[in-house]
Amino acid sequence: MKCLNIVIVGVGGQGTLLTSKILAQLAKAQGYNVKVSEVHGMAQRGGSVITHVRIGAQVHAPLVAAGSADYLLAFEPLEAARAVSYLQPDGKLIVSTQRIPPMPVLSGTATYPEEPYQALLCASQAVEALDAYAIAVEAGSYRAVNLVLLGVLSRHMEFPEEAWIDAIAACVPTHTLETNRKAFMAGRKK
């Protein structure tokens, strides 16, 4: 396997860090080397969160260089637009359509762009947008948006379904496993 580069972006509290933890668990269990780098300064207050995940036979550096991500997994459209420069020209963008206004928009000092997708469509022809929030609610919890998006990502990767479920089980609390599994499978089937 060539080195696989994944960038995950969202807003604090959406589960971006758990998503990177599940990917790391999955890769290690399948015998791959994995490096994860997280930037989550103001994450607890709803600020931007970005995580780099690199998987391969040998991975030497944790950061994904601009223009080299195979996948950009975005939990929010504006965060996707901010991070789209990480995506390689033939990379795949998977984005939830749920809008979460950042603090400047909430305070009235800025406006949320009308068409955040325009920048995304210009950067990549491979954009898969879905209402992951609605799918997560249907699966049992609005907090499972990250597992829905992970399910979508899993369709593009060559790891067996059982390995994904095992990685999820290793990373989530036992009492949330069934809801997280349902959300993952709903995303996988989209």
What does this protein look like?
The protein is 39% helix and 23% strand. It is globular and about 50 Å long. Strands 2-3-1-4-5-6 form a 6-stranded mixed sheet, sandwiched between helices. Strand 4 (69-74), helix 2 and strand 5 form a beta-alpha-beta unit. The protein has helices at residues 16-29, 77-83, 103-106, 116-123, 132-139, 145-154, 161-171, 177-189, and strands at 4-11, 33-39, 48-56, 69-74, 87-96, 127-130. With 190 residues, the protein is of the alpha/beta class. It has a single domain, classed as Pyruvate-ferredoxin oxidoreductase, PFOR, domain III (Pyruvate-ferredoxin Oxidoreductase, domain 3), CATH 3.40.920.10. The longest helix has 14 residues, at 16-29. Helix 1 packs across helix 7 (161-171) and helix 5 packs across helix 6 (145-154). The mean pLDDT is 90. The chain has 8 helices and 6 strands; from the N terminus they run βαβββαβααβαααα.
Question: Could you give the topology of this structure?
Answer:
Elements: E1 4-11, H1 16-29, E2 33-39, E3 48-56, E4 69-74, H2 77-83, E5 87-96, H3 103-106, H4 116-123, E6 127-130, H5 132-139, H6 145-154, H7 161-171, H8 177-189
Across the major sheet, the strand order is: 2-3-1-4-5-6
Oligomer: single chain
What is the CATH homology-level superfamily? Pyruvate-ferredoxin oxidoreductase, PFOR, domain III
- What is the CATH architecture assignment? 3-Layer(aba) Sandwich
The overall number of domains is: 1
H/E order of the elements? Answer: EHEEEHEHHEHHHH
State the helicity in percent bands: 25-40%
Question: What CATH first level would be assigned?
Answer: Alpha Beta
Indicate the low-confidence ranges by residue numbers.
Answer: none
Return the structural class. alpha/beta
Strand count, sense and barrel status of the largest sheet are: 6 strands, mixed
Termini, distance in Å?
26 Å
* Count of helical regions: 8
